[in-house]
Structures
1.
Amino acid sequence: MPVNTGLAQVSNDFLLVAVVIYALAMLAYACDFAFGSKPARAAAVTVAAQPALVGAAAGPAAGEAADGGAPAAAPPDEGRPAPRAISRWVRIAVALTCAGLAAHVAGVVLRGVSVHRLPWGDMYEFITALTCVAVAFFLAVMIRYRAYYMGLFVMVAVVLVLGLAETVIYTPAGQLPPALQSYWLAVHVTAMTLATGVFFVAAVTGIMYLFVDRYARRVAAGRPAGSDGILRRLPGPEALDRLAYRTVVFGFPIWTFGVMAGAIWADRAWGSYWSWDPTETWAFITWVVYACFLHARATAGWRGRRATIIQLAGFACLLFNVLVVSLVIPGLHSYAGLS
Amino acid sequence: MTGQAVQPDIGPEVPPDAAPPDDFGEPAAAPGRPAARLGVAGWLRWGWRQLTSMRTALILLFLLAAGSIPGSVLPQEGTNPAAVSQYYASHPVLARVLGSLSLFNVFGAPWFAAIYLLLFASLVGCVLPRTLRLAGSARQPPPRAPANLGRLPFSATYASALAPEAALQAAATVLSGRRFRLRTGPGWVSAEKGYLREAGNLLFHIALLGCLVSIGLGGLFGYKANRLLVTGTSFANTVTALDEFHPGRLVSPGDLQPFTVALDHFSASYVTSGPLTGQPASFVAAIRYSASPQGPMRSYALQVNHPLVVDGVRVFLIGHGYAPTFRVTDGTGHVVFDGPVPFIPVETSGLTSEGAIKVPDANPQQLGFAGVFLPTAVDAGGRLESAFPAPLRPMVSLVSYAGNLGMNSGPPQSVYTLDTAGLRRLPITPQPLAVGQSMKLPGGLGTLTYTGYQQWISLAITYDPGQLPALVSGIAVLGGLLLSFMVRRRRVFVRARAADSGGTILDVGGLTRSDAAGGFEDEFSSLAAEISAQAAKE
């Protein structure tokens, strides 16, 4: 079936609109940090000041619950920052994020309609789809955990990546070569797209963790903490660490499934379910590094900072695979559509 | 992977009853240095504990990841042997060093095998004791309730009008209704749930071992082969008829399944407009096959992603190209060559292909031709190029040689290139030939006619008995992973004491050993509320 170029153009327009709205949302999140209501600073520092104690106890709030006797359960700080009033800026930002996501989804769907297949066949489509997943997942996490503080950081990353996709990586809509015409492709790339979007959010959280952790250490040591305007408004490192961990735990089985679906596809297309093609190798390396993270987080002396660095290394491997391996190193996965 | 664990999330597991419940998650004894005087057994035990410690497993995992990197950056024998030879040609010294470190065959290298075998030894050392412990703990009741439930991560206190025993009974009813395992004592109930988490964790690690074994099975009993097949010809699955044959270690030539495949027709279609012009849209090879030499022939439309399965062996369409046909008459007037010669594509956008014609039977001298085939020849500033992969204007351009082809001596040579060592180039300018045109060789050596072209396909033939076990292991890996991430192991304790004013004060406490999924606080508060409601009702 021929490509519907008119629809493809509409899809491009929607994606451009999405980038613009995301940029506005990013500004609104930034305004919340600048002009929004002040959080209870003392509470944040208390939590942050005792990372060692909290890290060693079985439950994060074992010490705080000890003075119990209160009739209601005292749930620990499960990734939810101290509740503060949702500022006007946050409302605007969330509304803009939703609007941007709607345009984004429309762009991705129209691209799929215009080429009569799932819209993640080449690099450009893959990136637009994975950022779409990242934004949707981030919205869910943000609303579930009231983690509005993440908005600025996720939006900066999304605007950068999507902008890059629109300008540098853009590939016109087209049909797929025969090797990519398989429903296992749909399953494989869908899972990889989902997992990448989820890991994207985990990586952003991990980077936030590193900054907040350093800030908390400085505060605990009584040293001047430098530019702390944003950092002191973020939740404590424990909460960020747990959020990142849960995000990875959510993404890891999806990634595992995606790699397996890819193996099944390879088996159908090339006759061998694993042939150590460079992209396969890097998917495997990524899997191993995330497995390292999961094990490291359960190991004494590796939790917190070191585990987070491993997690970020895992995402770096993933990025290397997407951006370098499939474009530069020749292999069976040279599908990017760039030459 | 015992020891070193503070929070048994993924790998390690502290024996549930080895420590009192308020130490739920206390580090197990770290594998220390062996005491001063240890026998051989002591050193072995120390070594085993080091190997199976979580830290060693982490290091081995890192090594596995780092060791894979050269396999993706350097060309590999298994996937791209031609690129390896090219690398040897352009960097002879460096390539020899890299080659001696097996860096061109990373995934078959002894050091890579050492990493994953150590990792799996570490895994076995971790999984076996844990399986035994899980079996043991599944038979044991939950631990006693701690004295002060208020010190647990989750706790709540309620008043009830019931007597302490009745209030406890009500709490036990709620907990067993939620399918907790119960243990009761004087004035307390303790309950535990979520053993499937550890079972899933074990399943995950055991299934990883299963994956390794499946890959090993394929490597021992499976084989891979390639065969190039020109339209109108056929071949039988025997070692001599295959172009490339990579048997597993325990495969002998007699083990090959005796099927035959004939290619009747191959058609390819390409995108004809837009920015992706020339990109392939579909490939279909009309083949006939038979499972045994005398068996009936069946038809099959072989396509990419739709392999032919015959007798447990799978045949894949992995490539295609053109085989121009030539007729060569030698200096004595005899037709000494008449047939197709497969040319190998050197680029994809126009399928420009290179190949060689060897005519060893020509007299008075052997003849050889090397050249290119252009499916859609166009003039690009004085040079001929192929503008489209379909044969719209198929032309060949050949360089002619005469002399000794060197086919009867020396190392085996490629059929796609000419060894020009014993040949002399004939003084004739290569002219592009259209179908039907001829080229007369100087010195009365003969004539070559370009008679047309055929298409060829390349087939990959694979037999892998480890495939199904690998799939089953893969599904088990995923199932185990999901169980260990989604099931939460948690304990709930209830203590009842008589209140001064009559009735009972109920303390409820809870803890979980996993923060993978969150949500225990919600479960705990709903459970505590239900216990309180139940105790108020009766």
Note: The radius of gyration of chain A is 22 Å.
2.
Amino acid sequence: MTAPILAISRLSVVSTRDRALILRDVSLSVGRGETHGVVGESGAGKSTIGKAVLGMLPRTVRVTGGEIRFQGQDLLTTPQASLRRLISEKIALIPQDPMTALNPSRRIEGQLTDGLRLTRGLDARAARAVALRLLNEVYIREPERVLRSFPHELSGGMRQRVLIAAAFALEPALIIADEPTTALDVTVQKQILRLIRNMQSAHGTAVIFISHDLGVVAQICDFVTLLFGGRVIESGAAAQVVESPGHPYTRALLEACPRYDRPDAGLRPIPQEVIAQLRAEGQAP
Amino acid sequence: MTKAILHRLGMAAITMVGVAVVIFVLLRVAPGDPIAMMISPGASVADVAALRAHYGLDAGLLQQFLVWARDLGRGDLGTSISLHRRVLGLLAERLPATLELAFAALVFAVLLGGLIAVFATLTSQSKIAPVVDTINGLFLAVPDFIWAFLLVLVFGVFAPVLPLSGRIDPSLGVTFATPFYLLESLFALRLRVFLDVSRHMLMPTLALGLPLAAIITRVLKESLREAMVQDYVLLARLKGKSELRLVLEEALRNAVAPTLALTGVQFTFLLGGTVIVERIFSYPGIGNMAIDAVINRDLPLIQGLTLVFGALFILVNMSVDLLVVAANPRLRHG
Amino acid sequence: MVEAVALDLRGEAPGHTRWEFAGACLRDPKVVVGGGFILFLVVLALGAPWLAPKDPLEQDIILGATPPAWLAGAEPGHWLGTDDLGRDVLSRVIYGSRVALTVAFVASALAAALGSMLGLLAGWRRGWTDATISRLVEIWMAFPPVLLSILLVAVVGPGIGSIIGAIAIIDWTRFCRVVRAETMNQASADYVIAARAIGFSQTRILIREILPNVAPVLIALVSLEMGIAVIVEAILSFVGLSVSSDTPTWGGMIAQGRQLLHQGWWILAAPLTMLFLTVLAFNLLGEGLRRALDPVMRR
């Protein structure tokens, strides 16, 4: 079996302000070309995992234990300068909010070709050619016009496509997609999800898909890891977890998803007993 | 877009009229007779009356205003009572000196302020940060008046390397085709002359520019800080851009607009400051002339100067408005 | 019934006790340092006749300009030296603080009063009142302030009254803008809407409800204004338009010092330093007040 692209072992992160545990002993493994969903409620720590991998943890938190091995190298002990270079070449991010992730004062072409020119050393013309190819891949019509445009001239969906194109530009080994569809219309969400899945299999990139929506994750991910309160509750092949969930929380989460085929079924929030059980488990050392 | 410009022009026109009216009335209802200051003792009553009629000061207030407005429409700003020359000519002669000074100060302030703001942003997490902040705060409190004299003390007494007055060394014996000494000597590549004019302009430029630089630093630093925490900067950092390039290529564009508005307002204060700074350094611009004009109650000259200052203020404000729109891509296509 | 409701609402109004303000202010280092220096100046000004070593007007032409005590050629008893007429520089500087502070306090108070009144009106009434006042402010600000002040004083005649008047007439716009903006802010607050609904008179609302909430911003601005007033007075003295030439003023001494630069740099340096420190102190005080009152306001 080939070694995983990313192996997080027993990662623990605390907040320096109130000493709250943000991540507790989290272990996660992503194989080559695998789509791995990380699911949890707000505050469960899923975004923190993404930030930890990208070396973007804010000053208000501190890593207290564990390692993050990317292609065998522990990112937590790599010196800043080489870490920056490694990440810029091999790991990319698809951010959550396409509105704020693009510089409103720069045209798309510049923002799309930044990485290509900086890291691959391409000149303007070569980079532009790659950019056009990428825009085609993400199904943007009139790519030339888009390159000339400013972000505010594009719709939310188009901006997210541009960001997806930018993420795949350098053919990274791993992409972190941080809730990429949360800020989009429901109608656009499905398209974007499918696009990410298609791009991912076309380029063979491993993707960590962070979301609060287990239903969405189940659709496009091979494997899934569920978090609650900074701990891993369950993990495994997506199909299996959805079909026969091991933990009552997972079950409750699945049942809480609104079902469009049963509009009268109503919403079912997570039952109190499950929460109590989770809390009890959390108390255990 | 054009509608907005026309609206602003309209407002500017109203303001100018207001300025003209205020100064006109103020000068005439105030005590102090310019004629009395001009005549030699022993002049007959008839002479005084004749002089008064010559300058049109014997007519009623409204009539005087209408006459002045009519002449203004023809481009005639009257004759200076104290200097006995046409006001328009005097203004044309001296305005360029002030403009050169003001713009030199502006360029200096933008460069210095910009540099320090970028430096402060890059070192914002380091230990020097509070020091930079304190020094900035100190500079913010010092007005051009005090800078001027500090410079006079330093370069006039303790390290006398700069000339303390005038615009050019008279012993150089140069003549100019235009009243723009600095620009002309630069373009004509008369470098020794250029250097001499620059040396004369150095201290007044610093005196005017340092307060503006301090403000630009403060505002730009704040705007840059706001821009640097945005998601697009984060993303660019992940792609491997250095901090310096992040500040210059990503953050700066978005920080310029809010800085521009305040810089424009402060620049109008700088223009006002030329009055006293020119006096301190005996620099032959309109500011210096203005003080004498006021002391001598030279009505036509004061009115002309006020119009010029008013027009400059309005021009600066309008330019800033336009630049703000130009700097923001969203507003451009709006 | 209405009274009871009014009392209830009064409790809702975001008023802050004076003690909260005072406490916050005194804890801020900038306020302490800046305010401390100003206090020191006040002491100097009030106690000038007793604190100044010599009579500021007493001339000794034979003596001429002598340097300060720590330099060679100094005359004993004249700590900061003498000017070309043999007058003691230190005493003149101390007496100069009287004019400076008088102008600072009175002129800024007047400018604040005038500006706030018009600002309240403009922010409250909106419509034509606001348009007229705002236009007036714009026209006013199109005049270079220094020139306008010189003009006003030249026209009315020199003297401390005209200087104070000139500063107030020129700088009220600064207060007007700020108060107008703050009034517009406050006018849409719940407690104001409630007060109007009950039928409180506009004047009452303006003075009893809005003004106290505008006050903290004003106080900081007044301190800044005092620094500006001191500078304007110095500029007017420099140009020769201040109080009579007998009374020592810092600006007058600076003008003199500029003339006599090569005879005695201390004649310029002493008043310049005092002016510099005074402006710094007022600025520091204003900054400190603004920063100290801000979090209190936000609650």
Note: Chain A has two domains: 6-101+173-243, 245-285.
